[in-house]
Amino acid sequence: MSPDEVVRRFIAAIEAKDIEAATALVAETISYENMPMAPIVGRDAVASTLAMFLEPATDVEWVTLRELVDGDWVMNERLDRFKIGDGWLELPVAGVFEVVDGRITLWRDYFDMGDYQRQMAALTGDA
Amino acid sequence: MSPDEVVRRFIAAIEAKDIEAATALVAETISYENMPMAPIVGRDAVASTLAMFLEPATDVEWVTLRELVDGDWVMNERLDRFKIGDGWLELPVAGVFEVVDGRITLWRDYFDMGDYQRQMAALTGDA
């Protein structure tokens, strides 16, 4: 699989909330970085972070709007959508992925955390 | 000039706080989008936004960590640094640029606004 195929399959596994399939595509030593938070390092830590992140959503759609590829590197522009209760949380994200030997070794997402938190609070009534 | 050359010259002009040189590289109809805020549309609006944004900084360094190019599109990963008073504000950013006929027609930056605001408040004593 090419690096962009690995990234697309990884995103499809996340949309299916299939954490086992998603983490099968990441390296043991992956660094997962939600900028500017501290990196989450290792496959197990990524699995538990994804579980926590995906748990409240009954549906997950990560729409890739654009994808650029160069060697081991993939950058994409996405709209990450999470159905929470009756509404959708929609987060604009730019992602950076390094893929080595068919496994994601680095995953870095850029987004506005306040936007995520405000939408989550509105959808869960914690506003 | 290729699209990536245009983007690099644009960033160099911003680092020099040369708003005239920077906006000479953008299309009249540019859409400048600091996600998830409302788009800033048109060369003049970009010029005044850049002026406001760059004014408090005595030094500006936008370090490009990675750059991917595909046709008219450039995506980069940057550390945008602004010297404010005695300290540096350092903002991790992912940027997306569309360049048509040597002019930037779309510029979209992904970053955490709260990170920017907290650093600015700490550096200006407004914390």
Q: Mean pLDDT of chain A, nearest integer? A: 96
Q: Describe the strand arrangement of the main beta sheet of chain A, using strand numbers.
A: 2-1-6-5-4-3
Number of strands of chain A: 6
Largest interface: A-B, 21 and 21 residues
Count of DSSP-assigned helices of chain A: 4
Strand content of chain A: 35-45%
Q: Which range best describes the helical content of chain A: under 10%, 10-25%, 25-40%, 40-55%, 55-70% or over 70%?
A: 25-40%
List key phrases describing it.
homodimer, 127 residues
What does this structure look like?
2 copies of one chain form a homodimer. Chain A is of the alpha+beta class. Helix content of chain A is 33%, strand content 45%. The first copy, chain A, is built from 4 helices and 6 strands. In chain A, strands 2-1-6-5-4-3 form a 6-stranded mixed beta sheet. The longest helix of chain A is centred in the first third of the chain and has 13 residues, at 3-15. Chain A is globular. The mean pLDDT of chain A is 96. The interface between A and B is medium-sized, with 21 and 21 residues.
Protein topology:
2 copies of one chain form a homodimer.
Chain A: H1 3-15, H2 19-23, E1 26-34, E2 40-41, H3 43-54, E3 59-70, E4 73-84, E5 87-100, E6 103-110, H4 113-124
Parallel strand pairs in A: 1-6
Antiparallel strand pairs in A: 1-2, 3-4, 4-5, 5-6
